[in-house]
Design brief:
The complex is a heterodimer of chains A (131) and B (559). With 131 residues, chain A is of the alpha/beta class. Chain A has helices at 19-30, 44-53, 68-81, 100-105, 118-128; strands spanning 6-10, 34-37, 58-63, 88-93, 110-112. With 559 residues, chain B is an alpha/beta fold. Chain B has a domain at 58-89 and 197-444: Methylmalonyl-CoA mutase (TIM Barrel, Alpha-Beta Barrel), CATH 3.20.20.240. The two termini of chain B are 48 Å apart. The chains are: A alpha/beta (131), B alpha/beta (559).
Chain lengths: 131, 559
């Protein structure tokens, strides 16, 4: 039997808005994925550690506080430094269009903004997971 | 209210109408849906008549504005006397930038200030703390010490404006800073008007800016109640908030129920700390959301007022009528704003404004059209403020009090929301009260279920969101949005470094030690914190001392 896709849903930084993260976590679980949710206020280091420990295929981060330009790339860099290059990194939240190219360049492979259907996220993960 | 014979006639006539005219039409043109519901999934009938409110007791259920049970409003003349306070929540970047925005808003006719703090400030970290990286000045203004607070209110006479501060876990520190700024302006504490949010329970439930464990947090809150009842009598010491509960995805009923259940917990804590209910309850205030389902929202505010009045009178035996009045601030619903076709949000906000005003709000923040994209631009904020002004001066809904009262639908919906909210409150009582229900994850789980259901309804198309799952268009890049300069973080850290060099560090240390000592007794901490902020001890240092004594809250993860 094929192994279920394992996803770490993470809330980096001090932002407390977790409605989106929790809805996504549940939708991914309903779609048959194994989901680990970090809870609030995670440092990039904690997220990377959890990703490695839990041996996840996907790291899905959510930020609505505007700190995405700082925190998303930091997580991507730390993962790279740890030699992890087969984890799909995605992000979501209130993220201005202008910031998206920079984030993609930093290694966040997809950014989902308000109004995204959870089905689109499920489909994206299934099509782009690397292992 | 109606005589039985007439009700019988109406019921018969309605049956005849349903089986006759309606049935005939439906055979040819079916209704749009099998079942109609409110935005919060309360079932809605085709038509309401006097039969739906046949046992209606006007005096018991509604009464008169300014009189128990306050269903029709808390003031005798409502907006005929004075319009609601138009209060736009604002703050970003540095104290200097925010001070400019406040002065602009006051010039534009805004009548009260509402301070948004950045996340490090809300969680009690200084701008140079590791966890503050990337967050300084982003969702609000960065305040590290009294120095920043002096700049924030520079040139704004604190005896003339009322100021609302969205601050919770470290509310006691920010209030102390505000009092200290006022003193420097020559304004005494008893003249200060405003509100601190100071509602920690909903932080554990929905908003996430907690610091300390519940017991210590409740102690800080009751210290504030006690201090202000004597020293800052015009200050609203708490704003018990349903807003964030609703934003997290709750229904209207849950918003009322969980907010009032939290309210009950604060009243119980204060009574347990030895305060008399009528000494602090008149300064309790509330904060609700305004969603798109106009009529449901109006019924919600009316139900909340009636329910709170009854709780205060019957459960807590309050004697002062002011203790029974549910006064509230409203903010339009951020979660209803769409990133798609953002100008449509102006219309949503207009509907929500009408809901708040028809529901008798005391103050209102209207969201800006671009807030699903970023912090609002000055132009967007102006449109949002103008929306309130148009409703206030042009719509006519302000000219009589509680104009929707007596509508068969509104009254039956008000009853329904009150009843369902009461059922939730009973359930929470059975669990041991709001703090216990939060600890068990009951409240969080109820909200999450509602949020997930909502999302699934949108995705199945059962619920239409214009521009999102229907009437979409190809859209251009959204360009004209506000950005906070990353330079702000560096500047703020620089200012903080200078402050740490300039101030009398020995005095700071003495005052911090005195605070630490007091924190492990049951003394009221307000005077100690006031002393500390005056020495320019930073917010992070003060919260650091309290963290040492109280420890930190660990969130339980509920999925």
């Amino acid at each position: 039997m094929e192994r279920a896709i394992r996803v770490l849903v993470a809330k980096p930084g001090l932002d407390g808005h977790d409605r989106g993260a929790k809805v996504i976590a549940r939708a991914l679980r309903d779609a048959g994925m194994e989901v680990i949710y970090t809870g609030l206020r995670q440092t990039p280091e904690q997220i990377v550690q959890a990703a490695i420990q839990e041996d996840v295929d996907v790291v899905a981060m959510s930020i609505l506080s505007g700190a995405h330009n700082h925190l998303f790339p930091k997580v991507a860099n730390l993962l790279r430094e740890e030699g992890v290059d087969d984890v799909l990194i995605i992000g979501g939240g209130v993220i201005p269009d202008d910031d998206i190219p920079g984030l993609i360049e930093a290694g966040i492979e997809a950014i989902f903004t308000p109004g995204t259907s959870t089905k689109d996220v499920v489909e994206y993960i299934r099509n782009n997971v690397k292992r | 209210m109606f005589d039985d014979k007439k009700i019988e006639n109406i019921e018969e006539a309605k049956e005849k109408w349903t089986d006759g005219k309606v049935k005939k039409v439906i055979e040819r043109f079916p209704e749009r849906k099998e079942k109609f519901t409110t935005g919060s999934n309360i079932e809605v009938d085709r038509l309401y008549t006097p039969a739906d409110i046949k046992d209606f007791d006007y005096e018991g259920k509604l009464g008169f504005p300014g009189e128990y049970p306050f269903t029709r409003g808390v003031q005798p003349t409502m907006y005929r006397g004075r319009l609601w306070t138009m209060r736009q929540y604002a703050g970003f970047a540095t104290a200097e930038e925010s001070n400019k925005r406040y002065k602009y808003l006051l010039e534009q006719g805004q009548t009260g200030l509402s301070v948004a703090f950045d996340l490090p400030t809300q969680i009690g970290y200084d701008s140079d703390h590791g966890l503050s990286e990337g967050e300084v000045g982003k969702v609000g203004v960065a305040i590290d010490s009294l120095k920043d607070m002096e700049i924030l209110f520079d040139g704004i006479p604190l005896d003339k404006v009322s100021t609302s501060m969205t601050i919770n876990a470290p509310a006691i520190v920010l209030l102390a800073m505000y009092i200290a700024v006022a003193e420097k302006q020559g304004v005494s504490k008893d003249k200060l008007r405003g509100t601190i949010q100071n509602d920690i329970l909903k932080e554990y439930i929905a908003r996430g800016t907690y610091i300390f464990p519940p017991e210590s947090s409740m102690r800080l809150i009751t210290d504030i109640f006690e201090y202000c009842s004597k020293e800052v009598p015009k200050w609203n010491t708490i704003s018990i908030s349903g807003y964030h509960i609703r934003e997290a995805g709750s229904t209207a009923v849950q918003e009322v129920a969980f907010t009032l259940a939290n309210g009950i917990a604060y009243v119980e804590a204060a009574i347990k700390a030895g305060l008399d209910v009528d000494d602090f309850a008149p300064r309790l205030s509330f904060f609700f959301n305004a969603h798109n389902d106009l009529l449901e929202e109006v019924a919600k505010y009316r139900a909340a007022r009636r329910l709170w009045a009854r709780i205060m009178k019957e459960r807590f035996k309050a004697k002062n009528e002011k203790s029974m009045m549910l006064k509230f601030h409203t903010q339009t619903a951020g979660s209803t704003l769409t990133a798609q076709q953002p100008d449509n949000n102006i219309i949503r906000v207009t509907i929500q404004t009408l809901a708040a005003v028809l529901g008798g709000t005391q103050s209102l923040h209207t969201n800006s059209r671009d807030e699903a994209l970023a912090l609002p631009t000055e132009e967007s904020v102006r449109i949002a403020l103008r929306t309130q002004q148009i409703v206030a001066y042009e719509s006519g809904v302000t000219e009589t009090i509680d104009p929707l009262a007596g509508s068969y639908y509104i009254e039956s919906l008000t009853d329904k929301i009150e009843e369902e909210a009461m059922n939730y409150i009973k359930r929470i009582d059975e669990l041991g009260g709001a703090p216990r229900a939060i600890e068990k994850g009951y409240i969080q789980k109820e909200i999450q279920n509602a949020a997930y259901k909502y999302q699934m309804e949108v995705e199945s198309g059962e619920r239409i969101v214009v521009g999102v799952n229907k009437f979409q268009i190809e859209e251009e890049h959204h360009k004209d949005i506000l950005k906070v300069d990353p330079e702000v973080e560096r500047l703020q850290r620089q200012k903080l470094k200078a402050l740490r060099q300039e101030r009398d560090n020995q005095l700071v240390e003495t005052k911090l030690n005195e605070l630490k000592e007091a924190a492990s007794t049951d003394k009221n901490l307000m005077p100690y914190i006031l002393d500390a902020v005056k020495t320019y001890a930073t917010l992070g240092e003060i919260c650091g001392v309290l963290r040492e004594v109280f420890g930190e809250y660990e969130q339980s993860i509920i999925l």
